[in-house]
Structure prediction request, 712 residues.
Amino acid sequence: MNTVENFELYAPRLVDKQEYFNVGHRACSGCGEALAIRLMCKALGEDTVIVNATGCMEVISVMYPTTAWNLPWIHVAFPNAASVGAGVEAALKVLRRKGKIADRRIKVVAIGGDGGTFDIGFQALSGAMERGHDLLYVCFDNEAYMNTGIQRSGATPFGASTTTNPAGAASQGKNEWKKNIAEIIASHNVPYIATACHSYPLDFMNKVKKAREVEGPSYIHCLSVCPTGWRVQTEECIKAGRLAVETGVFPLYEIENGKYTMSSPTPEKLRPVEDYLKIQGRFRHLTPDSVQKIQKRVTLEYNKLLDKVENLHSWSELEG
Amino acid sequence: MSKRIGMEIALAAAEAVALCKPDVVAAYPITPNTHIPEHLSDIVAEGRIDADFICVESEHSALSACCGASGAGARAFTATSSQGLLYMAEIVPIVSAMRLPIVMAIGNRALSGPINIWNDHSDIMSQRDTGWISMFAADGQETIDMMIQAFKIAEHRDVMLPVNINLDGFQLTHVVEPMMMPDQKEVDKFLPAYKPFAALHPDNIVSMGALAMPDIFNEAMQAKDHALINSKKVILEVWKEWEEQFGRKYEPIGAYRMDGAEVALLTLGSMGDTAEVAVDELREQGVKAGLLKLKLWRPFPTEELLKAVKGLKSLAVIDRAVSFGGVNGPVAAEIKAALYDQKERPLITNHIIGLGGRDVVVADFVKMVQQAISAQKKKPKEAYEIYGVRGS
Prediction:
């Protein structure tokens, strides 16, 4: 399935020409995350403040005295994008109420990698979501600590080889399954949650626009292919993201007020997981047994998701 | 007009902060500072100030939220103690590097372990070299006054640095004292509205918190050091203005009965009041004793110290923290370093007292002064002692 086959025809009219994440940054060639950030900013528009956790995107975009950001931007540390974002949001709200700044809505968007979201920044994220700040948090998940050199995170998938969980004679790489972070955020009763991938740019941007309009917390989980860490050819970045969706490894869906919906790029029939695994060096060592084990788990998780889509209702339908 | 009040000092500190009209307060509960944010949340809930009180899920997030708020141009305040300050530690040096004028009250408490909720200075001493302006209040009045002064100093365009005000846990935070509380009009006159140098807003786009490579990091560190050293000028100006408006004098090192003194105690924080009584007793006995109360810890007032110790034969430096395996307690090490180049300098004895809330009474200070005098004849074997250790 190819939802952007007419991109040439539609894109110029659908996508803001203004660049908010400029050329000249130092991301690796084929970086999915840098592409995703560029698209996210176009969807957000100028009335935005970005709060960036430490990670690849901060390192490649603001080497003093340069900056790639054409939006107000702040970075403080690794674990605290959500709490810094909470502070920015609180400040803008109070200063606007007191008439100290212009009376218009500025959206605060906190961004972090999977390490800054699943692991070290998880407490701050949970706190900010629970407190209900008018804050969009976007996790750019490339499934390991890529900035420090491809170490295992809570987002690293089963079977992947990383520099701290390497495959070897006595190890098949990561032995644990990936944390389902979107589901954890859903348990915070966040009104808008979506999964997305840069390989489906219009779907991703539409979700960002939707989240921007929510007056309260919202969360987008964007799978971001890292050719360097996944051992994928740089020109295969977009393809790898598509295969993640087409095989059901990374389904695209939204949770709006508790109601689950599969997104339009969802294939009618899933491809075998092997198609996704075999183009990536990080899974090269996997035995057919391990591939089968992954296939089984992916099918189970996918069916659990479809079950939620089928059976869970919007909160508005559940009000007594 | 200022009003004479009797109030728990933590509550008075919160009242003083409220008079500064903060926009954002973010805090996480930890004994013994907790009454400060609790009372501020009362003040917000009553609608006495228009501020957002963020009940963060940790101290790390408290200081992080203050960073975001201050970065967006808000006047931001937080408070903590002990482990809470350590939990913030990752963010503490970043605040000063980003030149965010956040004010923090620290209800000083011993660091674990063993866990202990009572007072000493090990918490703030662990954060000594982070680039914050750091002051110690000796009593309730100083606590109130310093809270208000702190915002003016922090936000001054020639400073733009965070300030921490230290008040001894329990000994100050939980004690009811008579104090003069300024009124709103007086504080408005003293403290101008905060005008940020840069703020996170699309009308004026900035990037804050960039990465510095080795080719610029030295320069960034020197800039931070110069900013802190140069802040002393503004601190002294602000204290002068305070004295002119409120009649209460502030100096980096306060002096008590130092005229003709040959031996002196040097204290930080609330122990100074007890030490004053000891000095009175010693003077009655004919001992030429005096007391120095260090109020400004960073930037360190070297110049004032050199003047203050002139004529002293010995100086008993009181520390409230251990620099484990080090040469001295943190205060004594600093003072020895400051005096090293002087031809004439007092003999220094170093007494580490009151750890984890251990009580120190007047007689103890008298004894320490006597030790400092006898050290002139016979130098003690050890460079410092943990005073009053049982069984030693």
